[in-house]
Description:
Radius of gyration: 15 Å
Order of helices and strands: HEHHEEH
Amino acid sequence: MKVIQLEENQLAHLLSTAATLGAKAALTDAGLQKKEVTKAAAYRMYSRRSVDAWISNNKIKPVFRGSKTMLILTDLELLSKTNQVFKKHIMKVD
């Protein structure tokens, strides 16, 4: 197992990000926030490259609604934030 050391501000950022994602999930579950977005909207929000990579790596599963391909918004946000946190705080630690 690899030990990862974080500075206090890095830990605070990780906890803040987790709390924000948890709050968004609660709002979605309560019906106060959109649950799904179209694939085209996801491309605009997170980049075509990221969305296509997440789909091809089975990190997110598209939902087909008629002619539209929908993606779960909280899943997209979680993947995006996870990638950001990893690149910012973990990847640079040797």
